[in-house]
Design goal:
It is a single chain. The longest helix has 13 residues. The protein has 16 helices and 25 strands. The radius of gyration is 23 Å and the shape is globular. The termini are far apart. It is α/β, with parallel strands linked by helices. Helix content is 29%, strand content 22%. The strands form 6 sheets. The chain has an 8-stranded parallel sheet, with helices on both faces. Helix 4 links the parallel strand 3 and strand 4.
Length: 444
């Protein structure tokens, strides 16, 4: 049988394809642009005949119809590995449950522990060899589809095709059903405009960097903004090894700075797991031989990251306490995002020869009523710890950069208070004294 005959034999409408879903099943939507929009809409239409169907996904911009159509969650239960802004809103509405994880273990979770009854994802059209490309979702897909009892692919011609190191595609022989249909162009996601605080944080980081560094930028507006400003700096011959490719890397490329010239592994290649950004970003990575997509089990592996000399990791956080613990995924007990790869890159970049791992934040934030709060806290009360104090390396705000490696509790308190907004420092010193982590010799 030719691959084209096999393709036609497996072609179904979305409504026909989702008939395989049964009550109690575990369904996977993979991640971001891999979200199967047509299949999701068709599955939502079966709401009243299905019960307790569990769906996993992450970084999906929405809407997710199976979640929106069933506020009772009697029929569909949506779960996310890492919340996008939309999925955060679902959590606030009680329509999404977070799955704790670190990204380099994502494949292992599926391989060893999880059931997948039906995997559904969007892919590029089949090529002449019978392969479908995982595109911007390469980081998480292969093991999910390998574990699935039934694989359904939704063809989206808007997806860029990414060359990869391994596990970037699936063959028609491994697919059960294929769905075609109309897809809207992906919405533009304009890169955030750096604030004055972002610029000050970036200016504080630049002296710690040198030509030839390889950069990882975490998820969020602050790392992306810092990356944009690095693109405008005098640094040159930069490399890319990152779980998330954003428009900041496109800016580095357009500025002639992203050469990957001095990478000790994957030399000449910009390595990524997932990509989210503008249409211009997708055009740049489409069939680009200088870009290589890998599963996150590789991209985020600390043992891989540490092999890259001068690896610089830049991630953000929501708050830090005086003990040096970092919370990057919750505000109080409200789920904001996820652990993602922060811990992976903290460990890997810290072990890299010449490497550095930065966690950045503005010193304050304003609530919806306009009241200003410090991001440096005396201690946490319910926040989830993303990065333990034993793993935290550099911390940065607009007031400076400090190194936590090997520091005692009283040293940490002094260094962290130096990063806080001046209006909050005296209160933090009083708290440190009460917590017995302040010495008389500490600098005020």
């Amino acid at each position: 049988m030719s691959i084209f005959t096999e393709y036609r034999n497996k072609l179904r409408t979305p409504e026909e394809a989702v008939r395989v879903v049964k009550s109690g099943d575990w369904i996977d939507y993979t991640t971001s642009l891999g979200m199967p929009v047509l299949l999701d809409q068709a599955l939502a239409k079966r709401r009243d005949e299905l019960f307790d169907v569990k769906i996993r996904g992450n970084l999906i911009s929405g809407p997710i119809e199976v979640a929106e159509c069933d506020p009772s969650q009697e029929h569909f239960i949506y779960n996310s590995w890492h919340c996008s802004t939309y999925e955060r809103n679902l959590c606030d509405r009680g329509l999404c449950y977070f799955i704790p994880m670190v990204f380099h273990n994502n494949s292992a979770y599926y391989k060893h522990f999880l059931d997948v009854n039906v995997a559904m994802m969007s892919v590029t059209p089949m090529d002449k060899h019978g392969f479908f490309n995982f595109s911007t979702s390469t980081g998480v897909c292969a093991q999910i589809l390998r574990k699935a009892d039934i694989v359904i692919l939704e063809i989206n011609p808007n997806l860029p095709k990414l060359y990869g190191g391994y596990d970037e595609c699936i063959h028609i022989s491994e697919v059960d059903y294929i769905v075609e249909g109309e897809h809207e162009p992906f919405p533009e996601l304009p890169a955030p405009v750096p604030t004055e605080t972002d610029r000050r944080i970036a200016a504080n980081l630049i002296p710690y960097m040198c030509d030839g560094i390889t950069l990882q930028l975490g998820i969020g507006s602050l790392p992306n903004a810092v990356g944009q400003l690095i693109a405008q700096s005098d640094l040159k011959d930069l490399g890319m090894h990152t779980e998330l490719c954003s428009d900041a890397y496109l800016e580095m490329h357009n500025a002639g700075k992203l050469t990957n010239k001095y990478k000790t592994i994957n030399r000449g290649k910009s390595v990524l797991g997932v990509a989210i950004g503008s249409r211009s970003l997708y055009e740049w990575i489409d069939e680009n031989p200088s870009v290589a997509a890998y599963p996150l089990e590789y991209v985020n592996s600390p043992t891989v990251i540490e092999q890259i000399d001068n690896m610089v990791s830049i991630n953000s956080c929501i708050s830090v306490d005086l003990f040096g613990q970092v919370s990057s995924e919750t505000s109080g007990m409200r789920q904001i995002s996820g652990t993602g790869g922060q811990l992976d890159f903290l460990i890997g970049a810290s072990a890299s020869r010449g490497g550095k791992a930065f966690i950045c934040m503005s010193s304050t934030f304003c609530d919806k009523n306009g009241n200003r709060h410090s991001r440096v806290l005396p201690h946490f009360n319910g926040e989830i710890i993303t990065s333990p104090r034993s793993q935290v390396y550099y911390l940065a705000t607009e007031y400076g950069v400090v190194n936590m490696e090997g520091r005692s509790t009283w040293e940490r308190a002094e260094l962290l208070i130096s990063l806080a907004h001046p209006d909050f420092r005296e209160d933090l010193i009083c708290a440190a004294e009460q917590q017995r982590i302040w010495r008389r010799s500490n600098k005020r």
